[in-house]
Amino acid sequence: MASPIEQFEIKPLIKLGTIGKSEIAFTNSALFMMIAVGLIILLFVYGTRSRSLIPGRIQSLAEMGYEFVANTVRDSAGHDGMKFLPLVFSLFMFVLFCNLLGMVPGAFTVTSHLIVTAALAALVIFTVIIYGIYKHGAHFFGLFVPSGVHPLMLIILVPIEIISFVSRPISLSVRLFANMLAGHIALKIFAGFIATLLFAGGWAILSPLPLALTIALTALEFLVAVLQAYVFAVLTCIYLHDALHPGH
Amino acid sequence: MAQDDSSNGPGERKPNAAGDADLLRRLGSLDSKLRDVEARKGTVHNADKQKPQMSGIGQAFRLSTEFIAGIIVGGGAGWALDRWAGTRPWGMIVLLLLGTCAGFFNVARAAGLMKSRTDDKSGAK
Fold first, then answer.
1. What Cα–Cα distance (Å) separates residue B91 from each residue in A163, B76, B79, B87?
2. In chain A, which residue ranges form alpha helices assigned H by DSSP?
3. What is the pLDDT of residues A10-46, one digit of tens each?
4. Following DSSP, what letter does each residue of A163-215 receive, concatenated?
């Protein structure tokens, strides 16, 4: 049985040289990121090429994608949050396509690496902080001071609020990474059971059981792939809402 | 009503083919859809509105990671403070407790039990 974590190995495809001691290479991770971005561009450029009033299949897919994200941003971040639509849209599409590409057998799942999701979460949270300070100045830090509380309570509540804020990018990145990692490991292990049972003599009768489970898990993984992209986008919107209206 | 039907729901044509009950049901669903669209156009929705649409598993993952992240950040900050200021073990103890509180705060907030960034008891908005 192949190791269940073998699929997450980063392999350098083209070596580009070194910076300091660390090697810079075009890896399989980078390759799949580029495939994801390429597919997104293809979907939207090709899909909206005809610009017909009655959309074809690809065009309606592209329009649905846009409408869905636009509604999510409007619902969670408000109307003035719409200026962040390009950011949220790019994030959602990138995460969605990376997750779904990971479901192709043999493909590499970019979002199963914490460093990738952490980078995306850092992008979100720095956008929130920088935009919040740019827009509201020191008033942005009112985010950490709950209103209408006894001043003595603030000694406890302000650190809690700060920790709560700092924990956001962590929960955002860990959630996506853990979901993808755990799902793919579970899928691999159960699929491995099929082969192991099949070659275990009389136990071969039991091998349809993990097969059924693997099929069910595959369906679940598709759900998780879409759902996690959605959750990432919604939480991005909620955090951006805080940057737009701190201490409300 | 027939006009509303054709202009708003392209997937819901052919009213002749269906029975009365079916028609009523469809009108009902159309009404609710229209109300959704109207509501979306007018007001700025609160993030809490989004909650019921998220499926159970998504909600569960969200709540658990929110909680754990609070503890991790608290513990990490405490550890870093101890290393930097040499206050071992007090920074870790205090900040881990605060982190756990923050974890509970996160969960309550994510579950929509608490108004977004204001204290629950005060009720001030």
1. 14, 10, 7, 6
2. 28-47, 57-77, 85-102, 114-136, 151-198, 208-244
3. 888 988 888 888 888 899 999 999 999 999 999 999 8
4. HHHHHHHHHHHHHHHHHHHHHHHHHHHHHHHHHHHHTSGGGGGGTHHHHHHHH
CB-CB contact of A226 with A96 (8 Å):
yes
**pLDDT tens for each residue of A84-140:** 999 999 999 999 999 999 999 889 999 999 999 999 999 999 999 999 999 888 888
The answer to whether the CB of A229 falls within 8 A of the CB of A219 is: no
- Looking at chain A, which residue has its C-alpha nearest residue B121? A149
ipTM of the prediction: 0.75
Closest partner CB to A170 (pick from B72, B98, B101): B72
The answer to whether the CB atoms of B106 and A79 lie below 8 A apart is no
What three-state secondary structure class fits B16?
coil
What's residue B4's pLDDT? Answer: 46
The answer to whether A76 and A238 have CB atoms below 8 angstroms apart is: yes
Question: Residue A203, class by beta-carbon neighbours within 10 Å (0-12 exposed, 13-18 middle, 19+ buried)?
Answer: exposed
Q: Report A:169-188 residues touching B (Cβ under 8 A).
A: 170-171, 174-175, 178-179
Is residue B29 over pLDDT 70? Answer: yes
Q: Is the pTM above the cut of 0.90?
A: no
A237 within 8 A of A72, measured Cβ to Cβ: yes
Burial label, A90 (beta-carbon count in 10 A; 0-12, 13-18, 19+)? middle
**Dihedral angle of Cα A155, A156, A160, A161, to the nearest 10 degrees:** -40
In Å, how far are A214, A244, B68, B69 from A183, measured between CA atoms? 11, 35, 19, 20
Compare all CA atoms of chain A with the CA of B63 and give the residue at the minimum distance. A171
Assess A224–B contact: CB distance below 8 Å, yes or no: yes
Q: Do A174 and B69 touch (CB under 8 A)?
A: yes
Helices (H), chain B: 2-8, 20-42, 56-85, 90-110
